[in-house]
Amino acid sequence: MDQPGNGRHLENNKPKSAAILVEPPPTEYAQKHSSKFAALKPFIPFRPKPKVPVSPYDDVGFFGTMFSTFITRLVWKAFKKKLTFSDIGTASPYDSIEVNANRLYQIWTEEVTRRGAQDVSMLRVFWRFLRTRMIVTMATGLLFFVTFFVISTFFVQRLLEHTAATDPSLWTGITLVAGMFFLEVTRSFAFRSTTLVGLRSGTKVIAATIGMGYQKVMRLQGLKDKTVGELVNLFVTDSFRIGNLVTDVGFMFVFPIMIFPLIGYAVYIMGPWALLGIGVTILMLPIEFLLGLKIMKLRKTCVKIADERVRMTSEMLNSVKLIKMYAWEKPFIRRVEKLRARETKLLQFSGFLQSVMIAMLSTVVPIASVITFSAHVMTGNDLTATQAFTMVSCFHLLSLMLMLTPELIRLLAECVISARRLKSLMVMEERDTASRLPDDKKTAIDIKLATFAWDALDKAGEEKRQKETKAETGAVEEDSEPTTVAAQDGQTEVKLIQTLLDVNLTIMKGTLLGVCGSVGAGKSSLISAILKEMRVVKGEVAVDGGIAYVAQQAWIQNATVRDNILLGKPFDSSKYEMTVQACCLRQDFEQLPGVDMTEIGERGINLSGGQKQRVSLSRALYADKDIYLLDDPLSAVDAHVGEHIFRHYIKKMLRGKTVVLITHQLQYLSDCDEVLLLKDGRIAGKGTHSRLMTINAEYAEMIQNYLDESDDGDGEVKEPASVSSRSLNASKRQRSTESTNCQKFSIHATPRLVRRRLNGKENAVSPLQRASSIRYHHPVPSFTSNTTNILLEQPGFEIDEHQEQEKALKAGNLTQKEEIETGKVKLANYTTYIQSSGILNTTAVLLVFTLNTATVVFSNFWLSNWIEQGDGKQDNVNGGNSTGTVTGSMADNPDVVFYVSVFGGTAVLMLLLVVIKSWLFSKATLAASYHLYRKVFQSVFRSSMSFFDTTPTGRIINRFSKDTDNVDVAIPLNVNILITNLWNTVAAFVAIGVVLPSFLVAVAVLLTLFCALYYLFQAIIRELRRFENILRTPWLCHVTETLNGLTTIHAFNMDSDFIRKFNRLMDDYTNIHYLAHMGGNWAASRVEMIALVISVLMTLTVVLLQGTIPATQAGLAITYAFQVTGFLQFMTMDAANAQAAFTSVERLRYYITNLTAEAPDVIEDRDHEADWPSHGEIQLHNLSVRYRENLPLVLKSISCNIRSREKIGIVGRTGSGKSSLGVAIFRLVEAAEGTINIDGVDISKIGLSALRSKLSIIPQDPVLFVGTVRYNLDPFSQYSDDQIWKALERVYMDDAIRALDFKLNSAVVENGENFSVGERQLMCMARALLRNSKILILDEATAAIDSETDNLIQTTIHEAFEDCTMLTIAHRLNTVMTSDRVMVMDDGQLSEFDTPRALLANKSSRFAAMVKAAGIDVTKYITMETDDVPAAEENSPHVSETDVECTKL
Fold first, then answer.
1. Confidence of residue 627 (pLDDT cuts 50, 70, 90)
2. Comparing C-alpha atoms, which of 1249, 1238, 1240 is closest to residue 1158?
3. What is the C-alpha to C-alpha distance for residues 1067 and 92, in angstroms, rounded to an integer?
4. What is the DSSP string of 862-895?
5. Residue 906 backbone zone (phi > 0: left; psi -120 to 50: alpha; other: beta)
6. I need a surface site. Which of 494, 636, 878, 980 has the fewest CB within 10 A?
């Protein structure tokens, strides 16, 4: 028995296998690819080529690894613009997500077993995962700094002494140069090794983290207070932050080791005054640390705001159709822009502090030099060139170590935050997957005295939701911590909402069980309980057989129709054909451009609601399982199709199967083997239909009311003798009966239901507060495979050849291939960024950078000149040439105060420029980021619906998450360092040119080679980064698609298949991610060799020209020569990284400049007065509509006139164009031909906002937003509490909302998952009541509501919208029987349009055939006055029942 708070996670004595969802690899494979040292084989100096290739970068030796020779072929292809995905090659098995994720998970389980889930340190888990590699990187990192230390101290000192000597040995100088060259090569290889091992380790940990997280998601009990957006952000952002730290961790722990020998050597060179400069330099460390902590805090807040911003953006994308219909784009955009403005403000401050850190590190050397040398000389000590420039070299080495510090602090801070977020996911409770078989072999499902509950949002979860809602209006608390609530080790008790109570249910094999009950009775929860998606508080559940599940809201993948039906199973043409026939899909296929190979867009965007549901039914039937759980599948289809599906699909095709059918179509219950009646979460009755009609008064009352509704349309209710509706005295009933008197409308509210609503008897058990389940989410991002490359084994229907199939694939392709630029990043992208930043800002930044670098160069030359002057007296030697010898002590120079003052003044100026430069730079870069984001955000949400139909949401989210993060953080950081290094490089060459002008010839040759390498390098980096951006979308979309369909995936036992697909996508991505960084190493290793040659040639020149140049100038030249090595190396990488980051600007700019916008929101002088429309008259004239160019018409030449205040029912087969009519009226798609006039105004001539704000719609799929109940009903605070409660009362939701702890401020989780689908529809209806428009469209608005509540709601609708023109799209024909007129749609054409009585009187009408198929008694309508029947009906074409079969869909 599972009690609340009892964790079913990893705290058991036996941890779950790391490969719980995926079969572990063979033992030999695991041993081969899990060896600690296997991936280090490429570092063997002389390694023969493997007989069996593993991967390009695993098949090379030490030098091939150091110089990334396996990239060379890709470099040439990229340079020739011929690089394609097929050239990339396969990923290394050592880096595969399966191997690494399983190993990381195994370590996690071991740590949990030792310490308990709450006390586990994720950082310790990562250390164990990468321990060997981390030791290797730290060892090579130490070697790098040791060689650097020896070069910067010992060799620099000896070379300077050699140049200052009067008669040195030439061979001594050459020996010094040779030794320096050897150490430089060693230093280079040590740096490469540290970087490459760290990069490989980072790639492994990224794969492991994402893989482990994905498998964890597959096992979750529920999402609790987490949203899909948060989990996606964890995969997209947090895993990479952990990987970034691992990449650079080899340098992190070297600084404390190297600082002491460096201090000792400085004191040895210059005495105790060296400690002053060292102290100034080291003083930067605590300053950087404090700045780093502040940056960490700011980044932490920014991450929270970014999470909320991305969540809101994702929610807007998923609900974009409703937002456009309600003309809510601008208010929602303003909400997001407020969040973005707050985020940008924090980012600017963070960027300012980071820029200060970078600038201080670049100026700390000259400032330390100024302070040290000034103090040293002013105390009467002499200063030689050897001392000065050796100390400068020491300061440079120290600053290099300090330069790494802020970046490493930032990486460490972000890693700690990300590890904490990952842990919050890993400690979440998992589903209980243990299965138990019933005691009786003839039993399929056995539930024994069980109580089931959903995990509730606890107080912390409620507060989080309320904070998120406040965040949208600008009230996020910076210091708030993310809340993680889990049941682990009994430490935290889980708050439960008990939904099903004391359920005792046995379903025998082969039984068809019909389940009925009112909204919120627990029908869908019963299926969730069988699927083990709910918590078992007490009792037990036993299931025998495989399960197929059809969700109430169909989960559709962004794939072809056939792929959705097959769901990974092999294609069997005969079985497939029977499935299609049973679900009435054949005619639908013929209408699709690519037949069944037509791609279905996200959220099934190009399918009607009924088509989506029938695809879901087809998937279940084709799976051929033992048990079928059907959650109200018939509500989404019209009556005739519903009849066909019930007779052919459920009764015939599923004969012998166990079927649990939830339905509001009560006419089918009499054909079920057994019926289950649920009431308030309890079983109110179970048995055969006839038995329940006899012994269960409540069931008999419900059926009788339903039959009355079918029999009567004039408002008279035939109550059972024992119950009298006249006894009702509540105000709600009075409203209903009054409405009946003034409207030709039937109201069949039962006394039981009304009393329950009035007296609040449902309050005892409220399902509304349960936390988010994983039953269903609107399918958001999903990746479309390159389906044109898929060749199925067998053709479908009449497709006999693969060529025809490929043609169908091409014709049915919906999602457009993601745009990918080729060649270098175009100049327009840079100019766009500069323009967004501001020309003046950019000019000021470049000017200040130049002035700062010039000040540093002047400081060095001033020092050189000061030393050269000595005591102020200059003796000429060697015939008066320019190589004078310094005489006397600098302390004796009469102008020493002047020299010190100027020298000190440069330090003050540098500090001032640091602040100015940092402020200007952060202001300019964040201004560019803010304006780019604003432009792209508005461009996206001003786009036409065709863009959203053909673009995966994940692709759009990628722009607003990863690309935006690059523009916010990566570009400022890389550009800042790039400009700093570029200016320093130019300054170094200028200094060298001043000292040795002839050496510039050699420099020019080497720089030409450098430019050629860089030109090749930027091509490969650019293309690989573009490929990386493209390949990020597939796995990202797969994650979100999985999150939105977890219950269906679990039910079909497809967990392993989805994990394997995810592993394939991630392996492709990690491969390109690693190669993109290796491309940087390809160039850096070669550039480093060029820089090494420059420094060696420079020192060799100084040695050979000893005695011809002053020692001070020689020291200056040698110092700058050594700096050039680092500057060129870092500048190459920084330039490549900056250009790669600018591909994000390129992607944002594409959305700014290439998206097709809708018509203007406002058209001056054309938009009408505020009271338009005053009548609500609609005229359609020859209206034809297609969703996109080159697609067939969905509405064909429709002409009709809808009078003011008229109530129109719209019926027709699924896919006949009913909803498309509403789309056309709202101008989501512009008319291909014809016009729509409302009150005489051509709606195509007015602004979209002016039109849509005056219309209302209650959509087929109810849309709720994350926030509160109040926020969902009144997102922009336009109505009072009284008005909101009145609207809730009119849709009979007021008692349910009052029962919640926070009333109107109660939390609504993502997609409204803590409300049933019926309750969501009622809330959407309340939203429309508040809007109170003159024209209302109801698109299957009550499909998920039981017929009793539907009757009450219909009364409310007719009463509240009595003065409105109302178009009702319905599958329940009884809801349109009292309409003034009925439209019958058929294949996009208006087939019939007349009063219900007239159409029913005409036996040959399609409407009459549909009503007959629905089993509605039409006697009363046929016997009505014939005056209402137009004479034209006699000339109507005869329509037989066969004409309205499902093949006419």
1. very high
2. 1249
3. 9
4. HHHHHHHHTTS-EE--TTT-S--EE-S-GGG-TT
5. alpha
6. 878
